[in-house]
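ENTRY TYPE: paired fold submission
RECORD: A
CONTENT: sequence, then structure tokens
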Amino acid sequence: MLSANDIRDRIHDIVEGLFRNIPSGLGSRRKDIRLTYSELRAVLKKGAHWAASNGFGNASDIKHIEDRGCLEEADPDAVSDRAYERGKDQLGTLGSGNHFVEVGYIAEIFDEAAASDFGLFPGQVTVMIHTGSRGLGYQVCDESIRHMLSASAKYGIDLVDRQLCCAPLSSPEGSRYFSAMAAAANYAFANRQMITHWVRETFQQVFQASEASLGLSLVYDVCHNIAKKEKHSVNGKEMTLCVHRKGATRAFPPGHRLVPDRYRNAGQPVFVPGDMGRASYVLAGTRRAMEETFGSTCHGAGRVMSRNQAIKTARGRSIPQEMDARGIFVRSASKATLAEEMPEAYKDVSKVVGVVHRAGISKLVARIVPLGAIKG
């Protein structure tokens, strides 16, 4: 098991290795993996299972992924040829903007029992991955908005904002969207699983040690910006609902059947990333979240500056040097990305998680301090 002291002098090697092994940024592609049409269909149908069966991970990983890494409602036929074209050589890559692979360590434990269930201890090295379905998912979304705008008018749905366009889930338009979205989610599951594999390879290369001895096990893979069919209590009656979490994640409680067995006593692991200069947090789901927020909590810190405003604010500054002065080594596909993602562009995540903890919709487990990161 690696501790912070084991990697402080090697963080440059680790981050450079990650940057070399994981293509990052807008339009990034893998030269070593280019899927055929039939292979990509299998990814859209099987998700993380496709990745694990092709050598990118193992059965233990699958147990610790939301919905075991595959949404069964996915229909590859609901995904357009243009989306296929965009996705065929982006699997295993890191998206642009706020997507990242961040290396840090556990600086503080708030709940020792939950931390123990999650396999976390003070000083432990962590790696957090944030990316999704890349150009394929963007294309699915872009096309679906156009279709849903027509559907909203067709079904007499008044919109206060065009981005809230929608259709009944039982309608042809709603059903097709859900199937395409699920396919994109499966692509994202496979994408993160493959990146997890290359994270492990990078650490093995740097430390010349085995995966087991380095403690490179997956804690959890949690989704956000996704719709799920779930059972919830509404006015005392259990109902099947479609819960769309935008900028939010599941926070299912102890005992819930969809929480992995290993975490059943603690509740589902929840990850709330902050900015690259301060901290990120591990929390656990609660029963109050099921009662008040359909089993949901926040996804991240949230921005206080637009991307354009952040770029203007960063003009004349060297964000990499500023991060280095904090003891954090960062690499990025572009200088603009680092400007957009500078710490002051975000809310203080400590205040954000304090709110959800006091509200009882997720409980604090651990605080992670960054040491290095690659950004898209």
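RECORD: B
CONTENT: sequence, then structure tokens
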Amino acid sequence: MEIGLNHYLVLSTILFTIGLVGIMRRKNILMLFFATEILLNSANVGFAAISHYYGDLTGQMFVFFIIAIAAAEVAVGLGLLIVWHKKHNSIDLDFMTSMRG
């Protein structure tokens, strides 16, 4: 049995669904970052599979840009997360939404 485009697109859909459920359930900001990464990786799988299927490198170039954006998001997000945890000793999202400013 050969792995075709449909298999990759089903995998991409499953990953996207897992990431979407992770964002909806958001209890912890670190898990929210992980779910966002899963969403971005599902898009990467879809872009790379379709790009390979059509023999065009455009989708693979988009994958490189998405990886760069994801790396920047992780760097900034984890930096903010460390500062938040040092200040409040919690990374719970429910605590963040009940703050008064």
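NOTES ON RECORD B: The domain at 5-92 is CATH 1.10.287.3510 (Helix Hairpins). The two ends are 59 Å apart (CA to CA).
STATUS: closed
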